[in-house]
Amino acid sequence: MLRTVRAAGLALLLATSALAPAVVALPAAAAEVPPIKFTQRTLPNGLKVFASVDRSTPNVSVQVWYGVGSKDDPEGRSGFAHLFEHLMFKATRNMPAETFDRMTEDVGGFNNASTADDFTDYYEVVPANHLERLIWAEADRMSTLVVDEAVFKSERDVVKEELRQRVLASPYGRLMALYLPQASYTVHPYKRPGIGSIEELDAATVDDVRAFHRTYYRPDNAALVVVGNFDEAQLNAWVDRYFGPLKKPDQPLPRVTVKEPPRTKPGVFEGYGPNVPLPAVVLSWQGAAASDPDAPALKVLDAILSAGKSSRLYNSLVYDKQIAVEAFSQADLPQDPGMVLVGAIMSNGKTLAEGEAALLAEVKRLRDAPPSDAELSEAKNELLASALRERETIEGRGSALGYALIVDGDAAAVNTELAELQAVTAADVQRVARKYLAEHRRMTIRYRPESERPKGEAQAAQPAPPKQVATYDGPVFTLAPEAERVKPPGIAEPVQPVLPKPAETTLPNGLRVIVARSSDLPLVTADLTVKAGAWADPQGLAGAANMMAGMLTEGTKTRSAQQIASQIESLGGSLSSGGGLETSSVTLNVMPDKLKAAMAIMADVARNPAFAGEELDRQREQALDGLRVAYQQPGSVAGFAAAPVVFGGTPFGHVAAGTPASLARLKPADLAKLHATWFRPDNAVLVLTGDISAEDGFALARQAFGDWKKPAAPLAPAPTISPSGKPRAVAIDIPGTGQASVNVMKPAIARNDPDYYPGIVAATVLGGGYSARLNQEIRIKRGLSYGARATLSTARTTGSFRASAQTKNESAAEVLDLINAELTKLAAAPAGPDELKARKSVLVGDYGRELATSGGLADILGDYALYGVPLDEVGRYTAKVEAVDAAQVQAFTKRVFDPAQMSVVVAGDGKTFAPALKARLPTLEVIPADQLDFDSPTMRK
To answer: Residue 841: pLDDT above 90?
Structure first.
């Protein structure tokens, strides 16, 4: 995974010493933030070790942070640190390839890694009794990684598919991943794309890779971070046993010393892409380093500009002027001085000049006058709440520690940064705006469709990468014969989880209220679910329920949209609303001391929406612009096609988000009627989770919703979904897109189906996790995709199944063959006991981690209430998954996953794959993107 620290704004887009700082002191209006308590020590070989014990979890997070990132890529090998991240999951002298997945995913945990400009971090979460094994495994891959030609080429192909998916197939991938750094830096290696280029990846050699590992993957360039349920003395003994013998190399660590020169005049960069539905503009300035005293003020400045709907950029460009579908900013403050940026994706028909002028006006406002006290307080509360949400999980706390160590230069910064943010004054914000955002230091990046490139102008050719950048004369490791391998340590006794115990009541008006304490961290989630979704859309008004739900936060009878955003965000809370196939919801996340005030706003939003005409016009235009972007993304287009293909002729058979034509027809009265019909207390469930007791939750529910009147008219029943259409084969031609999205799909089962548990196990065997069959065949063995997956989505009466992967266009037919082959294999022969055990562990582990966050627990309990599942299923889930046997999985696959009954949807550059698909699928319908009409049963104009 490539962690792009710069420009994460696009949505569309060590001797032992105890460090236990006091609780961070904040203003009286803010909640206390518990510090991350940790100890640290340094081994003689230079490895830093950080330990933070949490007895409330049955799990442990193990992370190794290396001080090497994309800025350390050799010249001519951009993307190299990222490529190496992938290789670290392969074989060592003692572990065959994919052993990390056996040790993590297959026991109910997970593993992943990310590469940023300054670091590469590897992280796992496993049941706590597997800790020793992970310590051993991390030491083994640090010291004896196997890099051979076959593995190197396979993972390079995977990285190229990731590049195609994240950069080339994404409308704004080139802008953020390639053009922004290239334009913003002149000499510092931050200018190179972290994900690399196809040409430089192809030029890499095995010797390059081996030399990179020897240079940077060493104990004195690493930090081990362990957070969770463990005995610290035992951890120290294991660390000494497995990491202690590793040698610190004699050669010094190479470090980037080049300094980016100050920018003395403004510049302009013109960028183009083949699938750009709306133009975009980004303005960047040179910024500070993470450790700079100006960093806290720049972070607050960033929050004032773009954190939430009450931010300056949203209010100006998106809400008031309506010239942008999205406006964003970021203070990217890495180890070396980084950048501050603002940007916008323009609304349809609006120009880059308008966007640039509006962005510059907001920057000038910050330079000319300090922010108001209210703005300053709101920004600080938002940053505080964001830090709390990160700390909900053990992996989040570990990540915060590692990031503070590597990027800030001091792990203790994790417990001082919030106080530093709270100390920022309005004058500080204005001062850093003047210092860093000066007009003469601006770089402007304009991004347009390729069709607007001036005639005769060609894209600048990149220099050919060198054939080899390193020689290697060190040891070359190979997988040892099985009899000679060091065996992994044993597994200790498991730590039993403490499961939440939901309590419930029903108010006199029929509102069902469920409360479950899940954490002592000061956060609460309140989720109101109404049992009506896209199925309730009137004929010809696809997207009506989704728009109705989305507009709940866009104004009530007594509060404007801007007042709602400002009041919630001043509390450090987040309030969102939206709709799906079967539900509409309003979700609040806030600190407990702000919950009463925030729930009053939440209740107003849910009960008294205004659906003002001008707000509908505004939201309609934003939705239409969102569709213009989505229609250029193969995965999104295939997802839209799923509804008419799988559920045609039923209330699920239209695009839930709506279409350009249906959105244009919506009127305020349509939304008001839907709301009046379905938003009633006897059709709703309120779930409160987190740091809250049952009595407090019930009392708050009565206070906020107790006087919500139940209509006299009886509640109409939800429809039964019974699709009867024949399977279809559809190719959607999107010229110029960098990948194809390959999908097989069909109707499936209801949540109350007796075979629900065999069904989710079967889907997980096929496509649930890195080691599942589809990903094994498509990504791991052949490097054809960044990831392949399968999902069984249950519903009240009829759900759906979908298996999918994105691949280069010319491989689409091959990937389709591989998906169908795996469906056939699982029906033809039972899964083996080891595979079945591993896939069950994935389900159980994922479920447990979802329970561990207030939002995840609220989702689970809300779903149980929606589908009539008893709440004590929380305690029975694991046993029911474990009870599924191979015969049940095979039988379910035969009944539900028959390839002959599957529809096929492939979206991408059709000229490349359509002929091969036609040879396999004689009934294939090829629909050019400019002829798509999702309102039509044929999907064609």
So the answer is: yes
Task: Report how far residue 227's alpha carbon sits from residue 938's, in angstroms, rounded to the nearest whole number.
Answer: 53
Per DSSP, what are the bridge partners of residue 609? 556
Can you spell out the DSSP letters for 430-452? HHHHHHH--GGG-EEEEEEEGGG
Instruction: State how far the alpha carbon of 362 is from the alpha carbons of 302, 316, 359, 366, in Å.
Output: 12, 8, 5, 7
What's the confidence (pLDDT) of residue 876? 96
Residue 487: CB atoms within 10 Å: 8
- Helix, strand, coil percentages for the chain (3-state, nearest 5): 45, 20, 40
* Closest-CA residue to 441 (of 360, 371, 336): 360
Are residues 781 and 705 in contact, defined by beta-carbon separation less than 8 angstroms? no
Cα–Cα dist 705/610, whole Å: 18
Q: State the residue for tokens 């939201």.
A: 619
Per-residue pLDDT, averaged over 669-698, amounts to: 98
φ, ψ for residue 17, nearest 5 deg: -150, 130
Say how many C-beta atoms besides its own lie within 10 A of residue 705's C-beta: 21
> How confident is the model over 19-50, as pLDDT tens digits?
333 333 333 334 567 899 999 999 999 999 99
pLDDT in tens, 342-391: 999 999 999 999 999 999 999 999 999 999 999 999 999 999 999 999 99
Determine the average pLDDT of the residues in 897-925.
96
Task: Report if pTM > 0.85.
Answer: yes
H or E, element range at 732: strand 729-733
Does residue 6 surpass a pLDDT of 80?
Answer: no
State the Cα–Cα distance between residues 836 and 765, nearest whole angstrom.
7
What are the two backbone dihedrals, phi and then psi, of residue 744, each rounded to the nearest 5 degrees? -120, 140
pLDDT digits (tens, 9 = 90+) for 594-626: 999 999 999 999 999 999 999 999 999 999 999
Residue 692 Cα to chain centre, angstroms = 27
Asked if 697 and 588 count as a contact pair (C-beta separation under 8 A), the reply is no
The Cα 179–Cα 171 span in angstroms is: 13
Helix (H, G, I), strand (E, B) or coil at 223: strand
What's the whole-number mean pLDDT along residues 168-188? Answer: 95
Q: pLDDT for 303-353, tens place per residue?
A: 999 999 999 999 999 999 999 999 999 999 999 999 999 999 999 999 999
* pLDDT digit string, tens, across residues 888-902: 999 999 999 999 999
Residue 278 C-alpha from the chain's centroid = 23
Helix (H) or strand (E) holding 503: strand 503-506
Exposed, middle or buried by CB within 10 Å (0-12, 13-18, 19+), for 198? middle
E-only strand ranges, 146-279: 222-228, 267-273
Please, what are the domains in the chain? 17-251 (3.30.830.10), 267-452 (3.30.830.10), 503-705 (3.30.830.10), 729-931 (3.30.830.10)
User: Tokens 């009595």 identify what position?
Assistant: 695
268: tokens are 């302009």
Distance CA 489, CA 141 (A): 15
* 339 strand-pairing partners: 286, 332
Closest among 384, 424, 420 to 590, alpha carbons compared = 384
Residue 12 has pLDDT above 70, yes or no: no
Q: Which of 350, 304, 353, 275 is nearest to 622 (CA)?
A: 350
Q: Tens digit of pLDDT for each residue in 755-810?
A: 999 999 999 999 998 999 999 999 999 999 999 999 999 999 999 999 999 999 99
Q: What is the DSSP string of 868-883?
A: T--TTHHHHHHHHHHT
Contacts of 460 (CB under 8 A, 6+ apart): none
**Beta partners for 788?**
805
